[in-house]
Amino acid sequence: MTTPAGGPAQGAGASTTGRSVLKIEGLVVGYGGGDVLRGVSLEVTEGGITCVVGPNGAGKSTLMSSISGLLRPRLGSITLGEENLVGMSPRQILRLGVVQVPQNHSLFRDMTVRENGELGADILSDRALTARRVTAVFDIFPDLAGWAGKKAGSLSGGQQRLVEFARALMLEPRLLMLDEPSMGLAPKILRTVFDAIRQMNSAGTTILLVEQNARAGLRLSSQGVVMESGRVRLSGTGREVLENPEIGALYLGGAVSAG
Amino acid sequence: MSALLRTEDVRKAYGGVHALDSCTVEIEEGSVAGLIGPNGSGKTTLFNVITGYAKADEGQVYLADKKITNVTPDKVFALGIGRTFQLTRIFASLTVLENMLVASPNGRAAARKRAMEQLEFVGIHGHHAELAGTLSYGQRKLLELAYVLVADPAVILLDEPAGGVNLSLINHIAERIRELNAAGKTFLIVEHNMEFVMGLCDRVTVLDSGAVVAAGPPDIIRTDRRVLNAYLGEDLADDDPHPGEQA
Fold first, then answer.
1. Is residue B119 part of a domain?
2. What is the pTM of this model?
3. B25: helix, coil or strand?
4. What is the ipTM of this complex?
5. Which residue among B163, B166, B193 places its CB closest to the CB of A34?
6. Nearest residue to A162 (alpha-carbon basis) of A198, A129, A214, A126
7. Which residue in A12, A110, A209, A251 has the fewest CB atoms around it within 10 Å?
8. What CATH number corresponds to the domain at position B215?
């Protein structure tokens, strides 16, 4: 596999403005025992869904943590609009509108759905605005209104995912990052979760999606990126990446890396 | 049968989730066998069932022709199956050598000698007097391997030996496995690093959702459609051809 980082970048998906909301260039990140990201460059198109897939250890979660400010890159830049996020604290990055839904189930189980949602707007410190946002989020996920008074811990895994999404939407993110939202969910629930991602995008949210179910994730997305061993190995529209025969070799080793 | 280690129709559920579903895996004596599959496919659960850390709900585990189903971990170890863990389990506040002696049933001097030999074999004998907590992640994996080797097991189960380890140490670990295999040890290795698995193993078994979807030599496995499907996931395609492009 000799495609350079950044790969054969094809045109942006038809659903988007074509502008980049987030631009990552030459990102190198490590944990001390060597670099996990080894020169990653990619762009997230405004209004689209950009899906990052790749085998275990490819660096997908490290990429998200770097964007969120939880990890500090050694080299490279992460630009949101005009601002370089590298060196900012996670809180500053959150305030700029980059919101991440973590991989592990993260709701407060003994609090109600509404209370969990309101926590998403905590940094706004504005009760009237928070109430308006709750209403707006219930418009996107009408089911949530029916669960508002229920304890989050009483919901199914798939329902809890929707509440986590709703909580993230409370800040009206410029960029919503979802870290493996299908992880640990039964196959039947997957469609509900993917439908919810589509709904959020249709409502105008730009999404960066890291997904273990590569096929479902890429099919949903305007842009697709395949990472492997800390590098971008394939990129293009979701469909182009999905249909690229090299994707299999990137997961299973062999033909591509031997070439 | 020449299978040294065999699981037969093993089932294991956690709550309503089938971690293993009718899982039959055979490991030939003297082979280096790989066990792969996407996250959550049941690999570590199978290790846990084989080594007594989890009880099978149904099915059997055989070592040679001896039934060892649901035997306790210490007995499994004594019967000749050693294992390492995905997240290493060492005593951080003991020295490297002290860690080795925790496992040793022999007299002091002989045990110490044997422990040092194993440390030398894996290449961390220079650190024997240091606290294990000061070792790098890769060195901890080597310590765990050395610790398992002291008991001279016939079968060694390695859970992600290359995970989080730098490339030169990965090659070093692979080389140690080859040497041990040449000396007669049988291996079963769970690993996500495909180059490592495909380069090292004679035969690879692929799990998905707790069941075996394919088993065979690496070259066959890496081009098997069912394996690819397991890794790339279920396509949720329906009447909507490619919504991402129109939304």
1. no
2. 0.80
3. strand
4. 0.72
5. B166
6. A198
7. A110
8. 3.40.50.300
